[in-house]
Specification:
The complex is a heterodimer of chains A (about 450) and B (about 300).
Chain A: H1 9-25, H2 30-43, H3 49-54, H4 58-75, H5 79-90, H6 95-112, H7 115-133, H8 138-152, H9 160-169, H10 173-199, H11 207-214, H12 225-248, H13 252-267, H14 271-276, H15 280-298, H16 301-312, H17 317-334, H18 337-358, H19 364-385, H20 395-406, H21 413-441
Helix pairs in contact in A: 1-2, 2-15, 4-9, 4-13, 5-7, 6-7, 6-8, 6-10, 7-8, 7-20, 8-10, 8-20, 9-18, 9-19, 10-21, 12-13, 15-18, 16-18, 17-18, 17-19, 17-21, 18-19, 19-21
Chain B: E1 12-16, H1 21-33, H2 36-40, H3 45-58, E2 62-64, E3 67-68, E4 71-74, E5 81-91, E6 101-110, H4 115-128, H5 131-139, H6 143-153, H7 163-166, E7 168-169, E8 173-174, H8 180-190, E9 194-198, E10 204-209, H9 210-217, H10 221-224, H11 237-242, H12 249-252, E11 258-261, H13 266-275, E12 280-285, E13 288-294, H14 295-303
Parallel strand pairs in B: 1-5, 3-6, 4-6, 8-9, 11-12
Antiparallel strand pairs in B: 2-3, 5-6, 7-13, 9-10, 12-13
Classes of the chains: A mainly alpha (about 450), B alpha/beta (about 300).
């Protein structure tokens, strides 16, 4: 396949390269870099304005805004504190069991809420509980960040790369759960066994400290029980909406946005305060990147790149899936995974028809099941799990390190990486086996 | 506006002998009641005495350094009226600094224009801050001479209230190298929530507040929890606060503070306190700290008139 690139490509790639360099090196704020990059594409006439707007995936933006609103309202109910104290009391202050259960809670919340918000909500109560029990706080915080990234990998709404992949490849909430849920579960179990073996001796709790936690009254953590019931009711509706979005033909973005607004209405929250907590810089960052990558798509850059990928992998689909998994993971452990995924999505869309043709597939359902989805699952797994590779690999890692530092628990780059890198490699090995077994070895011919 | 235009020799009392401040207030109120403008407004002597005493009971008007500015608002009064009294000896007045009073200036204003009292107080406070002027008043024998002296001084009343008019004198300042422990004790002793940090030239370089002291001891994660009432048996504060026992003011002080020149207007001060939420406004003269204004000061000096 030969693709011709127009004359404007070098300057186009230069703008893209500079923008990516600024985002990756954090020389300037990433929202400013992406926004200016997109503006340069439009001002330089690389993409018409209307086309650029067309590339902004509003489903992704609405989903992010809606979930940010929901999390902001739920976070104030005290449910995290209640749950943490209930757990600590139920297991009679057993340090290592509390550690493992906190990791499960973090994973589950991260699967349904934004990872960063989850760690912001779980970290304060974790510090308090570990101080009460007089057990090391740092392993809790580091592994909570790692498990929030793992948990977030399992669902459509758990991590921004999944939101992007799901929206672009039209993958449903149930599909994410059924395809990524099992592998995430295996990774969690294996990682927890390793954590238990490694940390069990340092988590011994004195009887006096155990007595303190047994005196706690978790019911007092719920600041407003009525508000909590409303929040949980609306959140249940939102989850129901996600599960049935394919059947009721409503995009997850609209479900999340409507859920956030309904929650604000029923809880009597001041909508201005709720909206102030939405990370508008992240939303603008996404919008800028969509336009930036849109210009590249319009100019055929991804067809050209796709050609290169095909040559590199000799047209081998399994090899392509594994390369996508590992390359996106390694890249995500070093730089922000959002721009990577936004750029990878059109590339995958470009190379799919070639594999379909090579495999003699004509039925769109078969092409989707056998070619498109395995590549997108590889991308989602790589981009999400790769975030564990280093302290700067995921926003949740950076945020937990900031919280830890403010509370006099400095987490160094290497202290984090010493835990995160083995977890990332372990996750990727499991994911590689999973991709191979589920989509190639055991896939029906 | 020349202050002397509102004064006559009859409104100046010298060598006053009284047994307590209530007697002083009554004596001065009687003088005010005789001023033609007050009489023309139909204000009775008793109503002026009652108003001044009632105001004094709300909070003492002794501003410290030997001065008192008793005042009151009178319904129907068209303009303000003054009376200056120089006491023959020290009078216990329950002043802000606990010092006795030697010079009192009574100001009675119209109900709808109370802030003029602050402007007159400010003008007189500036005049009397000159030791030579103060001594002249304390040793003067002839009211007509004092009146002429004031005319010659051309004491003017600013049209707007300034920081100089309402500030309280600085009671406590600290240096950046002061240990935090000592600061905590000083703040407790003076019952203040915010203290200016000054350098060797008395220039304000920072500010220490109770809030900052709390935040230095209480860990950050406390701020992130919706509540902590669910924990019944955990009190690690001794440990939290012990970490900073060796720290100095310079390490903790906030460099975001409000400083104004003594000529700053009331609007500027209220803006800093209410809109910018500064706990205090530090007032400087030629760069050196001379006074402090907080919300209570504004309430007392302006809204409480």
């Amino acid at each position: 396949m030969d693709f011709l690139l127009s004359d404007s490509i070098p300057s186009l790639l230069l703008i893209f390269g500079i923008t990516y360099f600024l985002i990756a090196t954090e020389k300037v704020d990433k929202t400013i870099a992406a926004g200016l990059g997109a503006a340069a594409m439009i001002i330089g006439k690389y993409i018409p304005y209307e086309e650029a707007l067309h590339h902004i995936d509003l489903n992704v933006l609405f989903l992010l805004i809606g979930m940010m609103m929901i999390v902001n309202i739920i976070g104030k109910t005290g449910i995290f504190e209640w749950l943490a104290i209930v757990i600590a009391k139920k297991v009679n202050g057993n340090g290592v069991v509390i550690f493992l259960l906190f990791l499960i809670v973090t994973s589950v919340f991260s699967a349904f809420l934004d990872n960063v918000t989850t760690v912001i909500l779980i970290a304060p109560i974790t510090i308090l509980v570990t101080q009460i029990l007089e057990i090391p706080t740092m392993p809790f915080l580091i592994f909570e960040a790692l498990f929030s990234n793992i948990g977030g990998t399992g669902t459509l709404v758990g991590d921004p790369p999944n939101i992007l992949v799901g929206s672009s490849a039209n993958l449903t909430f149930i599909q994410f759960l059924s395809h990524l849920g099992p592998v995430v579960l295996v990774i969690m179990i294996v990682a927890m066994v390793c954590v238990w073996l490694w940390q069990r001796k340092s988590m011994q709790v004195r009887e006096e400290a155990k007595a303190r936690i047994m005196h706690a009254r978790p019911e007092l953590a719920i600041t407003d029980p009525k508000r909590l019931k409303i929040c949980l009711g609306v959140f249940g509706l939102v989850l129901l909406g996600f599960f049935t979005s394919h059947t009721i033909h409503v995009e997850p973005g609209i479900i999340a946005l409507a859920g956030g607004l309904l929650m604000a209405l029923l809880c009597g929250s001041n909508i201005h305060h709720v909206l102030e907590k939405v990370e508008w810089n992240t939303i603008l960052f996404f919008a800028g990147l969509f336009m930036l990558v849109g210009a590249l798509t319009e100019k055929g850059v991804f067809e050209w790149l796709g050609n290169g990928v095909l040559e590199l992998t000799s047209g081998n689909l399994l090899l392509t899936a594994i390369v996508i998994l590992w390359v996106s993971a390694i890249a995500s452990s070093i730089v922000d995974n959002i721009p990577l995924v936004i750029a990878m999505i059109p590339l995958i869309h470009t190379i799919c028809p070639f594999y379909a043709e090579q495999m003699g597939l004509a039925d769109p359902t078969l092409i989707r099941d056998r070619v498109t989805e395995p590549l997108f699952w590889s991308l989602a797994l790589g981009a999400c799990l790769g975030g564990n590779g280093s302290l700067i690999g995921a926003s949740a890692n950076v945020v937990i390190a900031q919280i830890a530092k403010k509370n006099k628990y400095p987490i160094t780059f290497w202290a984090f990486t010493r835990c995160g890198l083995p977890v990332m490699i372990l996750s990727l090995l499991i994911s590689t086996a999973y991709i191979y077994l589920r989509y190639f070895a055991l896939s029906a011919e | 506006m020349e202050l002397a235009t509102h004064l006559t020799a009859d409104q100046i009392l010298l060598n006053v002998k009284v047994s307590d401040k209530w007697q002083l207030l009554t004596k001065m109120a009687k003088v005010v009641a005789k001023i033609p403008a007050v009489q023309a407004a139909g204000c009775s002597e008793q109503s002026i005495i009652d108003s001044v005493i009632e105001r004094e009971k709300i909070s003492p008007t002794g501003i410290g350094s030997g001065y008192a500015f008793p005042h009151a608002r009178i319904v129907g009064l068209g303009r303000f009226a003054l009376c200056i009294a120089v006491l023959s000896e020290d009078l216990e007045y329950d002043s802000i600094d606990g010092q006795p009073v030697r010079i009192a200036c009574m100001i009675v204003t119209a109900e709808e224009n109370p802030t003029v009292a602050v402007r007159v107080m400010g003008a007189l406070a500036v005049l009397l801050s000159d030791e030579a002027v103060k001594n002249y008043f304390l040793t003067a024998k002839d009211t007509a001479a004092v009146y002429n002296y004031l005319c010659e001084k051309h004491v003017t009343v600013d049209l707007s209230i300034t920081a100089r008019d309402i500030m309280r004198p600085t009671r406590i300042t600290i240096r950046p190298d002061t240990p935090l422990r000592q600061v905590t004790r000083e703040m407790f002793r003076h019952a203040v929530e915010c203290v200016a940090v000054v350098d060797e030239n008395e220039h304000v370089v920072g500010e220490i507040t109770c809030d900052l002291l709390f935040k230095s001891g209480v860990p950050d994660f406390f701020n992130q929890l919706p509540s902590v009432s669910f924990i019944r048996d955990f009190d690690p504060f001794e440990q939290y606060f012990s970490n900073d026992a060796s720290s100095t003011v310079g390490q903790l002080m906030s460099k975001d503070f409000a400083v104004v020149d003594e000529s700053a207007t009331l609007m500027e001060i209220v803006y800093l306190l209410s809109v910018r939420h500064y706990p205090k406004v530090h007032v400087v003269r030629d760069g050196k700290k001379v006074g402090t204004i907080d919300r209570i000061t504004v309430l007392d000096r302006i809204l409480n008139l």
